[in-house]
Structures are given as C-alpha cells and as structure tokens.
Specification:
With about 100 residues, the protein is an all-alpha fold. The chain has helices at about 10-25, 30-45, 50-65, 75-90. Helix 1 runs antiparallel to helix 2.
Length: about 100
Amino acid sequence: AVVSTQSTGEDVERMVDLLQNYKENLTYSSDIKLQGSIKRVIDMCKSDLFGALLDIHEYQKDLLIHSQPPFTLNVTDSLANNRNNYLNYTSNTAPPQACC
C-alpha cells in the first residue's frame, strides 16, 4: 500500500483542478454529456456535504494511525499465568480431609 504524504483534501483539490482542465479541453459537440458529468462531479467535490465527509474521514484516519489500543490481550500468557496461579494455590493448600 502506498502512503500519501498529502491530505485527502489536497488530493481532492488536485483532482478537481485536473477535472476542470480536462473539461475545458473538451471541444467537440459529442463531449457535451461528458462535460455535464464532469461538472456534476466537480460540484459534488466542492459541496459542504463532501467537505464534511472528508473531515470525518481525516478524523477517523488520524484516530486509527495515532491511537493505541487500551490494552492488549495475549491469550497464551494469560493461560500460562492462570495455570501458574492455580499450581501455586494448590501447592500451598492442604489436601481435603476425608470425612466420616
């Protein structure tokens, strides 16, 4: 996986610039539908909703990259500790007495 040094917002701005340049270079009448589609994509990328979604994405990405889990559970070590605790307990207690 390639890790980008740019933020997602910068990537989107670059994409919008590239799309605008491409749209401006479409000159044939057969490109009218494509121009309309590109305009809709550009407008969507510039919308407040899309900006909010990018902010949420950046926040979640930052949390995942910089957060540490509250604890780690090593099952093997946990089982070994429980076994050792049980052995220590049983070796320090008297065997049960027979009744009657």
